[in-house]
Amino acid sequence: RHGSLADLVRMLVALALTAAFAAQNLDTEPLLAYCKKPWWNPISSCVPSNDVARNVGSASERSAADIVSFDLNRTTTQSVYRNTTLIAALRAVLKQPGSATRPPPKEEGRRLEIESVGSVSRQLFGPDSRRPVGCSDSEAGPFQMMVRLSTGCSGVMVGSRHVLTAGHCVYSWYDAAGNELNNKGWKMDANRKVFVGYSREWGCPTGAPSGTGTLWGSDVDGVQTVRWVEAISMMTYTGFVESGDAEYDIALIEVKNRPETRRSASAALTGLPWMTFGFYSNPSYRWTWCTAGWPGDLSPPLQLHAECSRDKVQDIEGKLFEMELDGAQGQSGSPLWPALSPPQSNGGHGAMFSDKLEAGPAQGVFALLYQEVFWFFGWWVINESNDFARIDANRFVSLCAWISDHVRAGEFNPCAGVL
């Protein structure tokens, strides 16, 4: 059956928006942190060489737990510590070894060194371990939940209309060199809009759908279909907005309508599933850790790439995961999750990884390329990592509080039971 004229119009609009997005720069303000030890005292503290490195850990614990919310017209704040309901929820969460949000109901959804490549900054640890997600795996487990932002970043659905990403993907604090901007503010296009792109065919070839048995927008035609939905509100943490602290570089976006796709030649729409998120009080260095996003240093530019690797943890701190998972501009906001023994709420990884482990809850988002050097017959790198802002108990409760405040009547609340 042929698609209608309305289908064709929507396809042309989506293709135009996708092409415009592909032509724009990636996130132009990735958090790049550099610090150097003075040559006369190599055991001294590392001296920051840009504002990102200087501001890591600068936010106060109390103010950094506060939320800054923006509905694209008005900014408001909310504090975990001034809300008795949230305090009670936080105390309950802290008594547990870990906690996570709820997946969609069962019936919903189915099947280094820092260097510049072109104008894209990246940091690899040995051979590049990122792999393109193939067409057949694009609707597997976590990969169909990944989204791309019009601000040039990556993200993941964590609710029916909620996206988890990095704070610097929604709020501009630094320039490309990692130094403080004079004019900070929420990231929007010239029309004060932000869009989220979604698909169950990120790994499929691009082009116009063909054939007479499939409507435009279906996920069974083997051709990449990307749809876009407009954001209506965003949040990040006071610790990032006021201090530029990369330890608080976490954000949420609420979109206008639930992302939906066509699962067959039928005109019926199916809502996109979402990834659970949460925290573990003692995550293991020995787990297999995964991430997925859109690295700007690899081609094609609109293909999702993923990595799942063991022994890639340098350090797990209270507010950061210091990892050796490969990363670059465009991957900002990519979720970090452990691959654990089944069953897990977010499904398996298809043919991407053969160990049959399934995707656990998202534990953080990619925020920072970090490099530390010292003087020894020249500047030598002694510590480098790709850092993910960690979802701790405070953030878990505050993220859930914001989502719960932005759930409409009749919508499934993934944070039900947390607050």
What profile does the largest beta sheet have? 11 strands, mixed
Uncertain ranges: 107-112
Distance between the termini: 48 Å
**Radius of gyration computed on alpha carbons:** 21 Å
Which class best fits the helix and strand makeup? alpha+beta
Shape assignment: globular
Number of helices, counting only DSSP H or I runs of 4 residues or more? 6
Strand tally is 28
Estimated share of beta-strand residues:
25-35%
Helix content: 10-25%
**What is the mean predicted local confidence, pLDDT?**
82
Oligomerization status of the protein chains? single chain
Overview of this structure, please?
With 419 residues, this protein is an alpha+beta fold. α4 (84-94) crosses α6 (393-405). Strands 1, 2, 8, 20, 21, 22, 23, 25, 26, 27 and 28 form an eleven-stranded mixed β-sheet that branches. It is globular, with a radius of gyration of 21 Å. It has helices at residues 5-23, 51-55, 61-64, 84-94, 238-243, 393-405, and strands spanning 31-36, 47-48, 67-70, 75-78, 98-100, 113-117, 120-124, 131-132, 146-149, 154-159, 162-165, 171-174, 180-186, 195-198, 227-237, 251-255, 260-262, 269-271, 278-280, 288-293, 305-309, 313-316, 320-323, 327-328, 335-340, 358-359, 364-375, 379-390. A hairpin with a 2-residue loop joins β6 (113-117) and β7. 14% of the residues lie in helices and 33% in strands.
